[in-house]
Amino acid sequence: MLPPTQTPVPRPILMQQSTATATATATATDTATATATPVPQPVPAGQPASARPPASPAGSEPAFTLPKLLLEIRDLRDRGAQAFLRAMDGGMVAEQYLLVVLGLLYREGGPMPATRSVTLVVRSMPGVAYTTGKELDGDHKEIHFSTEYMAGLGRERAGAEMTGVLAHELVHCVQWTGRGTVPSGLTEGIADWVRLNCGLAPPHWTRTAHGDWDAGYQHTAYFLDYLEDRFGDGTVRRLNGRLRDVEYHEKAFWKEAVGCSVHRLWVDYAEWLERQTPPQAPDPPSEPDPPPQGDRLTPPADLDTNTTATDRGEKGPTKTTTTTATATAG
């Protein structure tokens, strides 16, 4: 019996491509690869959290090449994870706000940290969120986001609050840290300054000049916003850029950056803030208390009194009081 006939696999026919066509194809491919997504406009304050910042027309905003963005949800049945999925498109929001973050902290084509990936890990844990680098390679960042915190948010504020926290943590993935020497108050302040300028400040944030300038978070964020107004747009970007290759030494850093000490600026900020606060109207005068009437002593009804009264409330020689009681026969 003859073995079954096997059809041989044909050799591929390679069609030669003209040099001009090959060059054009390679050029088009390279151009498409190098084109990055334009920076979107931040969401204005008060806009619904479900709204997405629209992409700007090409060329109107600086563009950046983004690291790989990954999403990991540990437990889809977790109430917080369900709230996260219900309130926001994590991948889309991360991409759009990372572009906003980069636009606020860097110029197109300028040096930036070599962050290669950012993984958003939605999981059960205490606290709100934190950012870390992977143990084997710090250029791969992880943002850990608490599902307990998400589950406790009201539906009206859930999307805006989650997006604000995410924007804050994305800053930690791409900001300079002065080789790890920048105080946490300044790094956290820059992150909340970005959140503030994304229109994502929560309603409970307030400007204050109490305590130290580097207390961090919104306390320092509003101070940085004052410096941005005082020294011009791009001030915080320049502060961040100075932390690229040098260690942070407070006195020298601020003197070189803005020409004076940060403590002098903090005093100026406090004075400026006081001028912004409208004076409070004085309290209306209270009605005067009525003059004292003195105590009027009323003897018990069953007493027949023959009394030499003492002067009411006056000090002086002791005066005698005689009281005669009329007994009732039993």
Structure description:
The protein has 330 residues and is α/β, with parallel strands linked by helices. 38% of the residues lie in helices and 8% in strands. It has a four-stranded mixed β-sheet. The longest helix has 20 residues, at 155-174. The relative contact order is 0.09.
Tell me the helix content: 25-40%
Computed CA radius of gyration, to the nearest angstrom: 37 Å
Q: How much of the residues is beta strand, in percent?
A: 5-15%
Task: Please give the count of helices.
Answer: 10
Order of the strands making up the biggest sheet? 1-2-4-3
Mean pLDDT across the residues is 79
Unreliable spans: 12-60, 305-330
* Structural class designation: alpha/beta
Total count of strands = 4
Instruction: Indicate the multimeric state.
Output: single chain
- Sketch the topology as an H/E string, one letter per element: HEHHEEEHHHHHHH
Backbone shape: globular
In short:
The chain contains ten helices and four strands; from the N terminus they run H-E-H-H-E-E-E-H-H-H-H-H-H-H. The termini are far apart.
What topology does this entry show?
Layout: H1 19-34, E1 68-73, H2 79-87, H3 90-105, E2 117-123, E3 129-133, E4 140-146, H4 147-151, H5 155-174, H6 184-197, H7 217-231, H8 235-242, H9 250-258, H10 262-276
Parallel strand pairs: 1-2, 2-4
Antiparallel strand pairs: 3-4
Features:
10 helices; four-stranded mixed sheet; 330 residues; alpha/beta
